[in-house]
Amino acid sequence: MSAGAIDMVLHPPARLQVAAVLARTSKAEFARLREITQVSDSVLSKHLSALVDAGYVKLTKGALDGRQRTWATFTAAGHKAFAAHVRALQAIVAAADETI
Amino acid sequence: MSAGAIDMVLHPPARLQVAAVLARTSKAEFARLREITQVSDSVLSKHLSALVDAGYVKLTKGALDGRQRTWATFTAAGHKAFAAHVRALQAIVAAADETI
DNA sequence: GCATAACTTTCCATATTGGCAAGTATAAAC
DNA sequence: GTTTATACTTGCCAATATGGAAAGTTATGC
User: Is the pTM of this model over 0.70?
Assistant: First the structure.
């Protein structure tokens, strides 16, 4: 049982939540992610930057309803890293789960 | 989908690993936990103290093979908190899991 | 051009984690 | 009983991370 596979980029709760959303929806709006994670604009922006820097997320900007918007999507690396992280969590948790 | 249930006492990887071990085995030796978590004595000691302070773990000291040993066990609160934490992780991860 | 919304970046405070080294405690040897 | 070694524990410090407020930037609509 090793935690080697735990990805510290994805470990913080806010980033795990963002990743979980991106794993399900192809695109997620900045505002929606901020509601889900319940952090301030600046903090979400920084978390997204961290994900972008890791090569896990791509940001797309454009206009919708006459307003500038930002959408986040997973890159292939992001999908892969999230899958691996989830497996790592499951490896730790699944075994323990039997006893709960 | 809220991360409200994520227990920050159990969130750090080292503590999650310790908790996962304790969920399965009634007692875990200090030395074994140190091998699993791959941290130094002092760091493990501090993590265990954090778990004790949270009321999640109880430490027992005694002699074995003529040496002083320390064993960690979950308290009832520890078991409960770990179960809740695992459920919180699964709530985030399980939904995403479908798409992996 | 100007105002506004939607982020982004800077600055700062706080917290956490990790290791080393020194300290304490207990058991065994003598 | 004193010494010694093992098994942690605590103090100290450095490095990193997270969070928010506020100022800054950019794009859109008027």
Answer: yes
